Automatic annotation (TrEMBL):
Family recorded in the similarity comment: Belongs to the aldo/keto reductase family.
Superkingdom, taxonomy of origin: Bacteria
Name this polypeptide is given: Aldo/keto reductase
InterPro entries (UniProt xref): AKR, Aldo/ket_reductase_CS, NAD(P)_OxRdtase_dom_sf, NADP_OxRdtase_dom
Organism: Parabacteroides hominis
Length: 278
């Protein structure tokens, strides 16, 4: 498995398994399958309500904890230094671990400055090996990165062939922060799985549209966490290290970029109201 080195020297697998929208009932099975396939990085969150399933799968896997890389995220309702601190301990209890490898702020709302101080405290106490943020647009990312004690190691953002986050990646690089993709398949939107450019490139290598899309992000140094509840798809998504896209193919995929979200905008007041009321 290829890795990326985070800004504190920690090595993180560039390919992981995400459990967003995996039900609590299915989560243990899915994570167990993913670990058996070979995944060693698992991404969950308080708001997914499946941390316990991840914890059960980890405990039963037989894989030493130090060989796994576990990420979780603090939700908006747990924002602020005191509440975030308590929620982090609760997440560790559910995950049946003394620490997580990566701890993120899930959304840039409520008292995220206080939340980040709780993350820094968790880092210093050994409860998190690295800390960072998620869904922080360039303006809020810069503001936090310039005024925190410990620079974010990661910013997890909507990143796929139609929204490639080129500008954000450049901004984050100045702070030593790694881009991590959620939604690498755009959840199938914009006719993702029948895109002619991705299909044509895939035929050259005997690869699927999904594999080409993951390979494109990986070659840009972006961490990916594709999700599937089907073991055969987990295997497919895992097998992206036996081919390399050419410069011309990378450029062709680069031209698919619309540089805008297919899901939501944090600048939309109605959406923000919806998020904070979840």
């Amino acid at each position: 498995m290829e890795t990326v080195k985070l800004n504190n020297g920690i090595e993180m697998p560039i390919l992981g398994y995400g459990v967003y929208q995996v039900t609590p009932e299915e989560c243990e099975r899915c994570v167990s399958d993913a670990i058996r396939v070979g995944y060693r990085s698992i991404d969950t969150a308080q708001a997914y309500y499946n941390e316990e399933g991840v914890g059960h799968a980890i405990r039963k896997s037989g894989v030493p904890r130090e060989e796994l890389f576990i990420t979780t995220k603090v939700w908006i309702s747990n924002a602020g230094e005191k509440k975030a601190k308590a929620s982090i301990d609760e997440s560790l209890r559910k995950l049946q671990s003394d620490y997580v490898d990566l701890l993120l702020i899930h959304q840039p709302f409520n008292d995220y400055y206080g939340t980040y101080r709780a993350l820094e405290e968790a880092y210093k106490a050994g409860k998190a090996r690295a800390i960072g943020v998620s869904n922080f647009y360039p303006d809020r990312f810069i503001d936090l990165a310039k005024f925190c004690e410990i620079k974010p190691a990661v910013n997890q953002m909507e990143t796929h062939v139609f929204n490639q986050q080129v500008k954000l990646q450049e901004i984050m690089k100045k702070e030593g922060t790694q881009l991590m993709s959620w939604g690498p398949f755009a959840e199938g939107r914009n006719n993702f799985f029948t895109n002619e450019v991705l299909e044509a490139i895939g035929r050259q290598y005997g690869k699927s549209v999904a594999q080409v899309a993951l390979r494109f992000l990986i070659q840009r140094g972006i961490i990916v966490i594709p999700k599937s509840t089907h073991k055969e798809r987990m295997i497919e998504n895992f097998n992206v290290f036996d081919f390399t896209l050419s410069a011309e193919e990378m450029e062709a995929i680069g031209r698919l970029d619309k540089a805008e979200s297919l899901f939501f905008s944090h600048y939309n007041p109605e959406f923000v109201e919806f998020l904070i009321n979840l």
